[in-house]
């Protein structure tokens, strides 16, 4: 008998205007000691399934149809008290963000002990001992000491281990993990996933892992369920589904995942959703406004030259200079970017890659070193007019589509602002024309100008950001994790757009990401960063086939096992 | 910890010095101190001599320094009205105000906090809605009107409680008089402290309710529920503690300002505190009393806030224990 | 296991994301969640109507009031201390009775409300302007500027409105003497109230500014090259105004209450231009001699006014807070 059986589950959220069906007729099951992955993009309804099982649906959501069975016993219609007793004791849950999952005012020990004693009859002493055992089992060193500390004293990965310990402490039969590694660094992700798999097998616990990341699915799951817009689209053994996907959605989803093994010219696009419009007008770059920048200085040699760049942040200020504490974000980094190439910077969070982007664009002032752009040292420019002239030539696209556009301005104004500020057009009519052209060119259509940012999806907003960046006719474009916050299928579209634009406008690009597979597809040369230092710079293919630095090798090893995915791609291409 | 305390202390000191500067400016430049002290017949030479003797011709920073050092020793000069040392006048009136403020604060906390918690946990119950409505009335009525209504109801109509004065007081130590130790003293305290405390009570209640509603929606409460913890533990050990911690600083600020708000209540109830004295001083342009009141009130306010800040620091482990 | 075909899934997608015809702006506003929650709460609707009526009565006082209590020619001492119309010895000309000078209480209340409201609005606008500007600058500039402004705010907090007004009054007394005070009373009141209330605006705006400052659209604006002032005014300001509205409503209620307290103490509006607080102060003397209406009716009017404004402010805060829904 399966541990968890879900039959024809339907979950609805009634609102004032209509009823939103979040989960539509879904049937799944999980067996003891096995891991089921539920994968889908945002809005697919996968988290809702998890919440429905454990009985924590957000108001006004409710189960409108179907049944849920735990070890053969029906659990979706239980009264409140029994549902509560079931949580923790029979079903454990792990949430995405370990920072906010733990009560900041209680020690780890007290949170563990209270959970243990709520479900299992034992004395405080015994419960404490059990808690220490659990902390040890999840791989935290010095368990007896660390258990007395507060959540903020642990790092992100350690905190997630504590959360896992808490989910397991009452010995549940089923554990639901909702995006358990999304908030963690790539290297930590791998560790946590391994830990989860180990614990699952050791304790014969059934596990349901909800995620949007195909890599996680490929890594640890035995079965996988693919969801799209509330419906279950495909369901089966992981090897089967990933190797020979039946449903077109699954097929396109898998093929949209950037491949780390070879470089393809264009990303295969998921044609299912949100078809991007192709530009209505073909523009002739030689005559069009967009191509007309070019009073820019010609450069011999690299366009951007970074020399011994240094950036130090003050983490603790003091009246006394000797007592101040600093954090070295960037340590003596040097590299060049040739005109027309795409240079990639890859590294984990905290490695300093975003800081470098901000140093180049002038958002931060470097504490040492030089930034040469088209031969001019940006750090030595004092005159505001000179600075502005440089600003025009480089622009940036940011990571978060939801905060990179001013929510109170219309799209047209957002894009027109740099044009007006730098006085690049003569009169309102011309500005209007340019804005319309840009919107068309990034695939949004001229009608989009009227609307406000919140009326667009994440991918569409990134297109607006791209249009805004192009508005000053830059020759250098910095992309800081432009697709990390987007669904895989949308990512493919945006990256294709960037590739096309680069070719057409002959842009030089600095592409920053933590995702090695994406970097491989986009860049000519790549720099690997770690803790503020540049470990290695090399040609794209050479980096992946013959990495020089130990850290690069480590990063490559940590990429989730992609043989299954690679095989799938080869077959469908 | 020491760093934190020192920083706060320095900030408090800066605030006090700025207030002292204001008080000094008032003291020195509004009206002519000499004119206030002598009669009309005094000759010009005598006035000049007096001016010299009092050091009023010295450079300003020197005068300011003298002012501050004297104030630190509780010497605030002589009242124009009463021709007595200001510190003596205050010594007689401070206990009344402080006891009233203390009683009001107690009332506000003891009634406000439980009401706020209840309203936060039971958002939709009719009792909560009642509390909310009452609190609305509480912040809508001006203090003096509440006082008038209470007097009208309990003193004039029902004749249960006195409408003015402090009742009998007992002297403790060299200068403190208390009303806590006599029945009439306690009776006299009831109406004024409710009047003064009502506004604070409703504020605290609404604050705690709002904060509690936010805390209930956090991820760690969700996770606590997902672990099957009983409601009692979730609400009181996790939610309540996290609610009270940020509320402490604001509450401290509010309670600190009770002392200044006491002026109105003292007027309505003819309570012999320093607020009433201040009001009379304003009407009679008695500058030494005014500036002394300023300094004392500011000092009490700053001191209370400093203590509250330290308390907050001790309670929140995120400030106390750093990352290893 | 249900297998969803291409066509079905595509249809489902289209159903979900089909573009709607863009409705007109007013239609959109009437259909919005905000307006619906407004209508659902009957108390709020009542409060809104009540406030509107009171505002209208107050501002149109010169035309609406049955008598002019300031026209010395029309009042007669013989009409003094007339009780409200439902009691013995009443006079139908004076619905709520008269005070010790023979002035009609109802008219006095209308005019008093008018003055209270004008003082309230002016002080709120002044406080908001000071507070928002300082908050923006402190939040955006950070560093020394922020520290200085916050210290000033700290000093300000030690002086509640009452204290400031009393101090200014005392100082003004000392400098100008009591005669001229009446002319300046209005301005002194507005200044004192504005000085004591700006801090809350500043703190809230500063907090929001610090959050917005780190958002990427601000960084994008800096990368474009826009100067700080433009960024603060055009980008940050519209995005931090939300909570300001709620604060302003609550502030209005508080300003009215504070002004009335000050008038009650004798340092607010003088008896020649009485606000509701002044009227209550006048009536206070007659409480014990049985002519309670002289103090109670203005008091009730004050309470009603403030209550309505507070109800609106409460609803506004709950409705605009996305987290509480």
Kindly summarize this structure in a few lines.
By secondary structure, chain A is an alpha/beta fold. Chain A is built from 21 helices and 20 strands. In chain B, strands 1-2 form a two-stranded antiparallel ribbon.
Global mean pLDDT of chain C: 78
Number of contiguous helices of chain B: 13
* Relative helix content of chain C: over 70%
**Main β-sheet, spatial strand arrangement of chain B:** 1-2
Distance between the termini of chain C: 37 Å
Strand percent estimate of chain B: under 5%
Uncertain segments of chain C are 1-23
3D shape of chain C: elongated
Characterise this structure.
The complex is a heterotrimer of chains A (573), B (324) and C (325). Chain A is an alpha/beta fold. Chain A is built from 21 helices and 20 strands. Helix content of chain A is 37%, strand content 24%. In chain B, strand 1 and strand 2 form a beta hairpin. In chain B, helix 5 packs antiparallel against helix 6 and helix 7 crosses helix 8. Chain B is globular. Chain C is an all-alpha fold and 325 residues long. The N terminus of chain C is likely disordered. The chains are: A alpha/beta (573), B mainly alpha (324), C mainly alpha (325). Chains in contact: A-B, A-C, B-C. Chains A and B meet through helix 2, helix 4 and helix 7 of A and helix 9 and helix 10 of B.
Topology:
The complex is a heterotrimer of chains A (573), B (324) and C (325).
Chain A: E1 4-14, E2 19-30, E3 35-39, H1 46-54, E4 62-70, E5 73-74, H2 80-89, E6 91-94, H3 98-101, H4 108-119, H5 124-137, H6 143-146, H7 156-168, E7 174-178, H8 186-203, E8 206-211, H9 214-220, E9 223-228, E10 231-237, H10 238-243, H11 248-256, E11 304-316, E12 325-337, E13 342-347, H12 353-361, E14 368-373, E15 376-377, H13 384-393, E16 394-397, H14 411-421, H15 428-441, H16 458-470, E17 476-480, H17 488-505, E18 508-513, H18 516-522, E19 525-530, E20 533-539, H19 540-545, H20 550-558, H21 563-572
Parallel strand pairs in A: 3-8, 3-9, 6-7, 7-8, 13-18, 13-19, 16-17, 17-18
Antiparallel strand pairs in A: 1-2, 1-4, 4-5, 9-10, 11-12, 11-14, 14-15, 19-20
Helix pairs in contact in A: 4-5, 5-7, 7-8, 14-15, 14-16, 15-16, 16-17
Chain B: H1 2-29, H2 33-37, H3 44-53, H4 60-72, H5 86-121, H6 126-140, H7 143-157, E1 170-172, E2 176-178, H8 183-216, H9 219-226, H10 231-269, H11 274-284, H12 287-315, H13 317-320
Antiparallel strand pairs in B: 1-2
Chain C: H1 6-17, H2 25-31, H3 33-40, H4 42-59, H5 61-64, H6 105-141, H7 143-157, H8 161-176, H9 181-213, H10 216-224, H11 228-265, H12 276-284, H13 293-320
